[in-house]
Amino acid sequence: MQSQLLNRSLGETTVEQFEQLATESLYYDISPLEYPRFPLKKKVSPINCLDFDKTESRFLLSGGSDATVKVWKVGTRRATTVGSITKATGGHSFGITGVQWWPFDQGMFLSSSYDTTVRVWDSNTLEEAFMFELGSKVNCFDISPTGEHSLIATGAESTHIRVLDLRTTSAAHTLSGHNGTILSCKWSPVNPYMLATGSSEGEVRLWDIRKTASCFAQLDLYRTDKSKAVSENKSKKVGVMKSSVKAHAGGVNGLCWLENGETLISTATDEKIRVWDLDAPGGVNTLLNFGPFVKNKTPSAKSLVLSPVGETEVQYLWFPADSGEMLMFRLGDGKLIARLRRNLQDTARSTCVVYGGNNCATYFSGTSDGRIFVWGPKIEDET
């Protein structure tokens, strides 16, 4: 680091290069942090999902299996609850399956639940602005990060995806084709009309919602070379491909795009993580191996988080394992960089993870015993 400081003072290293090098070094010093500290009540329930606001990185949403949604203000030393939505205050009636801030401001957030609804909330008053009734348990939802439209993709205990429109407060599309219930869905970060979805039958499908035959690709774990023929649509039903094509041998409960929109990461209850090259038509399994420590048997939605592109020379993939560990992999070669656990007694399942923002190399995770943990580089004044 001293040599880098000298190069920076001599003008041989740019500010951006120096910042990247400094942040890279932080990722090799990741450990459990005591601060900011989240209060723990005697009566707790599993934390199912988390999300940080994208504008200021100060407010954290958490959703629990007790149907409670909380808004936390995260400070340097502690986190305080600034609002809570419960059954008693007109919130969801069953466990929360997803929470997400509106990507472009802090005035609104959404939540989904096993009570068959997706709800839109005013973050200033914590009052419900609108409710979508889907008629079946909602497993997941996602908001497009591009800002080109106001569509919300949802996956429920059915074989089709419902795309909701916040502007018209109605269902805009229904995407049919999966052979199992929908466990995960993610919009492309660059193409506002491309959606990836995963099902309980191990399928990963790619959709272009502008087309009548919306499903344009079904990822095949055995297609490891772009020269191999792409699976053809043998069914007469619109959007359906032959059911033998699988991306995983278990339910696909987690999806994550790289920022360029040309690579997709998937995980499933077969305890595998796969990286797909989508630059080739039909997608190619890159055969990247992440090792034997991927524990993932719970069929509920699983969050996968990538460190921001450009923050470090290589990107890191964070995975909340059922074993209670937080796993950090180097994305380029799948090497396990860290197996994080607060102590040997903490075996509660890690359920979700979210990035803290602002080049902090700090991540927040939730557990099945109702705690929120913080992971990052040690700071000097921490005791």
From TrEMBL:
It holds the Pfam family WD40. One of its GO terms (cellular component) is Cul4A-RING E3 ubiquitin ligase complex. One of its GO terms (biological process) is proteasome-mediated ubiquitin-dependent protein catabolic process. PROSITE patterns: WD_REPEATS_1, WD_REPEATS_2, WD_REPEATS_REGION. InterPro entries: Rad28/ERCC8/Ckn1/ATCSA-1, WD40/YVTN_repeat-like_dom_sf, WD40_PAC1, WD40_repeat_CS, WD40_repeat_dom_sf, WD40_rpt. Keywords: DNA damage, DNA repair, Repeat, WD repeat. It comes from the Eukaryota. WD repeats lie at residues 40-82, 89-131, 175-210, 245-286. PANTHER family: DNA EXCISION REPAIR PROTEIN ERCC-8. This is DNA excision repair protein ckn1. The lineage of its organism: Eukaryota, Fungi, Dikarya, Ascomycota, Saccharomycotina.
